Amino acid sequence: MIKAILFDMDGVLIDSEEYISEAAIAYFASIGVTVKAEDFIPFVGAGEDRYIGGVAEKYGIKLDIEQAKLDTYDIYEQLIMGKESALVGVVRFLTNAHEAGMLMAVATSADRRKMEINLEVMGLDPKWFKVLVNGKDLERKKPFPDIYIKAANDMGVENGECIVFEDATNGVQAAKAAGSLCGGITTSFSEEQLRAVGADFIIGGLDDFEDFSSISEFNRLLLRFKAREIASQVRLNAYTPYSHFQVGAAVVSASTGSVYRGCNVENSSYGATICAERGAMMEAVASEGDFRIDMVVVVSDDDPPAPPCALCLQVMAEFAKSDTEVFLYDTEGKGRQFRFDELLPHPFIFPTQRHRHS
Ligand code: THU
Predict the structure, then answer these.
(1) Across the beta sheet with 103-107, what order do the strands follow?
(2) What is the DSSP pairing of strand 181-185 with strand 162-166?
(3) Rounded to two decimals, what is the model's pTM?
(4) How many structural domains are present in the chain?
(5) Range of the structural domain that residue 245 is part of
(6) Best substitution site from 240, 245, 269 to test ligand 1's pocket, by max atoms within 8 Å of Cβ?
(7) Which range is most confident: 63-67, 122-126, 232-236?
(8) 222 found inside a domain
(9) Closest Cα to atom 7, ligand 1: which residue?
(10) pLDDT for 151-195, tens place per residue?
(11) Binding site membership of 277 for ligand 1 (Cβ less than 6 Å)
């Protein structure tokens, strides 16, 4: 069960890059040095010391870096205050999480001052966050896991009970090395880059979350994202030389919470083709024996995304309940949701097996 959410800040909660670069340029101008926006690019994400310090070095200037940062943050505050800079859906997501009773922390490599300005700009009450960890609190920066280990520790939870939201590959590595679940957000890096360093699922932003009002509802949304990720990945292995129509399925076991996967496998003798959904259910039985389905997620490149065929539904009837949730997604993540009995209202169930469904 995930009880706590750890947020990276820039690129996850707020888009502040444009303002901090404008503030830093204005700071250098105030000490009589003209610098360009491009000068900062090599130092983005490297912590504020390098952001200002790296550019000062380039121009051969010696700075009191602590004072330079404070002056830059003053300018930054003036520039960003009153701007709609929270990323779409962030305030809604945080309100849901707060009201659901999730523990929350911000764990950022940025300085405390910038973190405080950002929370204020977004209109977020710092008290919603049980813990605020910033770059100054730790020697070893991301991709080392230290910041996420400290955040979990300070909150009194295990890293395995936390989900981390990150937009940077260094941050995903830090989260995974700490032993947390990690949702990758594609603000700054591509889906493939975030996946390659171990993100458990990928979303465009926190706005991809539907509303939730309890910790268990939030965990269910996470489970769905994980199952969708597994189904989309296994879909790429589908053997489809005839139809070229690839399908990936993930079946979540109600008994163990394990996620089983399947892809369609076609055959020269067309009728010997096996669908993704049945493949996933066969894997579940092979691993667990008789089992119960908690959730099914199917991914296909179709509009609207394809439902399981009638053969697969008939097999599903053996292991599902009438209200089992079936989620169908296209490859872009657009989805629709059904109860099992909407898809197959009248399954054939052998008389001796009917008790399983009552
Ligand atoms: N297919 C599935 O994998 N699942 C379904 O429920 C519908 C159809 C596959 C089978 C075949 O490889 C291809 O889609 C075209 O029929």
Answers:
(1) 131-133, 103-107, 4-7, 162-166, 181-185, 201-203
(2) parallel
(3) 0.92
(4) 2
(5) 228-357
(6) 245
(7) 232-236
(8) no
(9) 309
(10) 999 999 999 999 999 999 999 999 999 999 999 999 989 999 999
(11) yes
